[in-house]
Amino acid sequence: MTDPPLRRILHCDMDCFYAAVHTRDDPSLEGKPVVVGGDPSGRGVVAAANYEARKYGIHSAMPAAQARRKCPKTIFLRPEFKLYREESQQIFAIYGEYTPLIQPLSLDEAFLDVSEHLAEFNSATEVAEDIRRRVREERRLTVSVGVAPNKLVAKIASDFRKPDGLTVVRPHEVEAFLAPLPVRRLYGIGPAAERSLHEMGITTVEELRGLSIDRLMARFGNWGRVLWERVRGIDDRPVHTHRERKSLSTERTFAENVKDLDEIDRILDTMADEVAKGLKKRHLAASTITVKVRYPDFTTPTRSHSLPVPTSDAATIGAAARELVRRTDAARQSVRLLGVGASNLVPGELGQRTLFDDSAH
Ligand SMILES: [Mg+2]
């Protein structure tokens, strides 16, 4: 058996990305609690809170109204995804100068494999330092970076000295680095697995390491084997550089033309569900929803709507589709084909819970 090649992985994670972009562009926000998200007087939620806001116990996914109660002087900003997307492209372009092996996890987070791409640098640590310097100087933003032999440890490491931190975990330091962490920090351990482990009296990675592979597999099945590896810092998952997908859509041609609007709505909901599943499977969210209809005379108009927040939520996509179909002649004319499409895709699953509950029904 040969050892797997030694990888040098960076996990780059922008600090409070959305709020940081706004604060850079409007220095009057400096030092103030800032929340990006929905309307605090409606049912919107917090998408991102800066560190000043977090001091008041404000965090993402919290209702914006609750955030305002926690700190009335919080400044609430509506998200501007176009701005974040453009900024993200600039930052990823910097990463791209160091390695072609980039796996984006969201607009502000990526794995970089620099194993074969150290070029003039002596170490992955130097690459990380250079990336941090360039993002600071060229984008006037800060990025926290974790450097490690694999993705599991790099991701935990980037969070270790946030904000504006660099944490390097060398191969021989991996076990000691993981040992004191709560089990929840291991990739793949959700609330259910955590509860199950707590029942076994296990709260830290070190305690978890004491369990045999047989015991873990008895409790968790095949996942137990993965867990056994993870607690030892073993993670051979490569950095995936998937080709960028531009859009995702589904359509249906009917044996008999459809004219009833309720039926059209039901069909659109089913298709929205398929599109949402496709997006989730690929860890993508869509900023634009399109509906296509074909009339008996074969004319095929489309209608599109840009969402304030990218989504992979079936209900949000369905609602948009139903609204769009009402801007066509469907139901006045019968239709022989319906289609629902999602485009302007971004990585991540923002908008699972829509920020605009008040406007998106
Ligand atoms: Mg981030």
UniProtKB/TrEMBL annotation:
Needed co-factor(s): Mg(2+)
UniProt key word Transferase: yes
Gene3D superfamilies per UniProt: 3.30.70.270, 3.40.1170.60, 5' to 3' exonuclease, C-terminal subdomain, DNA polymerase, Y-family, little finger domain
Residues annotated for Mg(2+) binding in this entry: D13, D108
Cofactor details (free text): Binds 2 magnesium ions per subunit.
Chief localization: cytoplasm
Catalytic activity: DNA(n) + a 2'-deoxyribonucleoside 5'-triphosphate = DNA(n+1) + diphosphate
Enzyme class, first EC level, given as a word: transferase
Annotated positions for site Substrate discrimination: Y18
Leader sequence residues: none
Annotated catalytic residues: E109
Any single biological process term in GO: SOS response
GO CC terms, sorted: cytosol
Annotated ranges, domain UmuC: 9-190
InterPro entries, alphabetized: DNA/RNA_pol_sf (IPR043502), DNA_pol_Y-fam_lit_finger_sf (IPR036775), DNA_pol_Y-fam_little_finger (IPR017961), DNA_polymerase-Y (IPR050116), DNApol_IV (IPR022880), PolY_HhH_motif (IPR024728), Rev_trsase/Diguanyl_cyclase (IPR043128), UmuC (IPR001126)
Localization annotation: Cytoplasm
Entry EC no(s): 2.7.7.7
Family from the record: Belongs to the DNA polymerase type-Y family.
Function statement: Poorly processive, error-prone DNA polymerase involved in untargeted mutagenesis. Copies undamaged DNA at stalled replication forks, which arise in vivo from mismatched or misaligned primer ends. These misaligned primers can be extended by PolIV. Exhibits no 3'-5' exonuclease (proofreading) activity. May be involved in translesional synthesis, in conjunction with the beta clamp from PolIII.
NCBIfam families reported in the protein's UniProt record: PRK02406.1, PRK03348.1
Name of the molecule in the record: DNA polymerase IV
High-level lineage: Bacteria, Pseudomonadati, Acidobacteriota, Thermoanaerobaculia, Thermoanaerobaculales
